[in-house]
Design brief:
Blueprint (H helix, E strand, L loop, with lengths): L3 E4 L3 E7 L2 E8 L1 H9 L5 E8 L4 H9 L3 E8 L4 E7 L6 E7 L12 H4 L3 E4 L4 H10 L5 E5 L2 H6 L1 H7 L5 E5 H8 L4 H9 L5 E5 L5 E5 L2 E5 L13 H16 L4 H18 L6 H4 L3 H14 L5
Parallel strand pairs: 1-4, 1-8, 2-6, 4-5, 8-9, 9-10, 10-11
Antiparallel strand pairs: 2-3, 6-7, 11-12, 12-13
The structure holds adenosine monophosphate.
């Protein structure tokens, strides 16, 4: 089993969905990622929070065994995101993004963290993703996530990070936006020319597709009847995906394919409640049961 490092946002989210509304709850790309990945391996979190960040949230992460030595408390306000979903839960509308303490966060990684073999650059400013990547000592596998906010606002910096990562995880809208190509398969192939060897496109309730040179793999989403809040689904997907790969310590096709199913499992639990509420009451046995459920879902050669 190998360790896994992540840099990304730790946030206070205010979210409205057709099924309810929450204000300033625990969120952030690195938060969802770490929590989901902690079901598989030791996760080391690199991020910053403001001095207004509730201690109970830190406790929740510590209790999962997440290594918080790379989490800095800075003077000022924690990152805040305000988002909204209509009945089409696949598409988040960002109402407000306040970077706050992330605006001038420059992480100094402790030397123990620099040697972590698996690295996830969760959704955050591409300059910050690059800064962390440059401090690492040749990770075995690096994956990256981003979103429309950065594709629009920091395109050049993003294009500088992409050649340095092995895997890009994005949702379908972002894949199209990144290379300005409406066809998803063509878009994924186009993205491969920007650097990563593998692209995983998350398609919300329609599942996920992996495209790499010569490989194509598809997993449906778990058929859920009660989806309350899609926030964090992408990050939890990445957490299951990277967590499983790091736990195996190898990156071969069989492992990567299973990792995509574990990613889908973690995403499917996340959307069943607001914030990290469902993950916080999740057991490893439930994770394994749903993984087996996925096998049943796609078995057709009876
Ligand atoms: P997702 O998995 O894509 O639903 O990610 C949702 C999380 O991303 C929320 O908890 C937000 O706090 C966080 N987030 C939203 N916008 C940004 C941004 N521009 N940079 C970093 N994190 C963000």
């Amino acid at each position: 089993m190998a360790d896994l490092a992540v840099v990304g946002s730790v946030a206070l989210d205010s979210v409205t969905t057709p099924f309810g509304k929450v204000r300033e709850v625990l969120g952030g790309s690195a938060t969802y990622f770490s929590y989901a990945a902690s079901f598989f391996t030791t996760v080391r979190l690199v991020a910053t929070v403001g001095d207004d960040f509730p201690a109970e949230h830190l406790r929740l992460l510590k209790e999962r065994g997440i290594d918080m030595t790379g989490l800095q408390t800075s003077r000022g306000r924690t990152f805040r995101w305000v988002g909204e979903y209509g009945f089409d839960l696949n598409e988040a509308r960002t109402i407000d993004t306040q970077l706050n303490v992330f605006a001038d966060f420059r992480p100094m990684l402790p030397s123990s963290l620099k040697k972590t073999p698996f690295l996830f650059l969760a959704n955050i400013a591409p300059e910050l993703q690059l800064d962390v990547l440059r401090q690492m000592e040749r990770p075995q596998l690096t994956a990256l996530d981003t979103m429309n906010f950065w594709i629009q606002g920091r395109r050049e910096a993003l294009l500088r990070v992409l050649p340095e990562v092995d895997v890009l995880l994005v949702n379908d809208g972002e894949a199209r936006q990144l290379v300005k190509e409406p066809n998803l398969i063509k878009a994924a192939r186009e993205i491969l020319t920007l650097g990563p060897r593998t692209v995983v496109v998350k398609r919300g309730e329609y599942g996920a597709v992996m495209v790499s040179n010569g490989q194509f793999f598809f997993v449906p989403a778990y058929p859920l009847e009660s989806v309350f809040d899609p926030t964090g689904a992408g990050d939890a997907f990445a957490g299951g995906f990277m967590g499983y790969i790091a736990a195996q310590g190898v990156v071969d096709q069989a492992t990567v394919r299973r990792a995509i199913v574990y990613g889908s499992v973690m995403a499917s639990f996340t959307v069943e409640d607001f914030s990290l509420n469902r993950l916080a009451r999740l057991s490893t046995a439930e994770v394994e049961r749903r993984y087996a459920g996925f096998q049943e879902l796609v078995r057709f050669d009876l």
